[in-house]
Amino acid sequence: MKKLFTLAALIMTAVIILDGCKKGPEDPFLSFKSREKRLIGQWKVTEFRINGEDTLETTWADLPIQATPPSCGTLNVTYNYTDDTRFNFDKNGRYDVTTKILTTETITYSSPGTSCQNVTNTLVDTKSVTKGLWNFVGGSGSIKNKEQLVLTESEDGVFGQVFNIIRLSSKEVKLYQAVTDPTSGEVIKYEWTLEPDSGE
After folding, report:
1. Over residues 192-198, mean pLDDT
2. What is the dihedral of CA 111, 112, 113, 117, to 10 degrees?
3. What's the pLDDT tens digit per position in 24-53?
């Protein structure tokens, strides 16, 4: 009987410890790595949703029109926007975010010829880098300790953003933000999914 009570006590203790390791709603039930070690490394944004719509790559087109000269047929213009964003978190609490934006237009004719050749033009091709400090916060109200991530863009702590951590594993990170538009009062929901950066 004593052995049964000891075994039950050990199981209850393990459950409490494991439950304490799980912070975000989709966190792995068991991880042998600390939250810091799970986050440290290079990550690529594979999904960025605004109010549920993925915005990493968008394609749209103008209405077809009659080309000039008429022998070229119909003129079609299609635009493509891509966002390539990568995060790097180091063990010293520093981070950098590199974002590459590329927008192209593709002009095609239904009857291409010498005077009306299909072509793709680059409209926007930019790269930006943001650096700063990262840290876990939480432990207030319904927010568990280390359930939020703060990215401070300057070392003096002047400007920073807080993200709710939905999932933090070695293979996937999910972040969430809800921002209220000061003009319209609309709540805008932002969701990021990050996966280990393979360099591609």
Report:
1. 96
2. 160
3. 777 776 677 999 999 999 999 999 999 999
Count of C-beta atoms within a 10 Å radius of residue 97: 18
Give the integer Cα–Cα distance in Å for 17 and 113: 71
Q: If pLDDT is split at 50, 70 and 90, which confidence band does 66 have?
A: very high
Between CA 195 and CA 157 the distance in angstroms is: 27
Q: What gap in Å lies between CA 49 and CA 135, rounded to an integer?
A: 23
* Residue 125 β-bridge partners: 102
Is the CA virtual torsion 13, 14, 15, 21 positive or negative? positive
Tell me the pTM: 0.80
Residue 86 makes CB contacts below 8 A (sequence gap 6+) with: 42, 43, 44, 45, 97, 98, 99, 197
Tokens of 80: 């493509």
AA identity, residue 126: T
Q: Which residues are within 8 A (CB) of 135 and not within 5 positions of it... i.e. 6 or more apart? A: 93, 149, 150, 152
Q: Domains in the chain, ordered, with CATH?
A: 2-196 (2.40.128.370)
Helix (H, G, I), strand (E, B) or coil at 70: helix
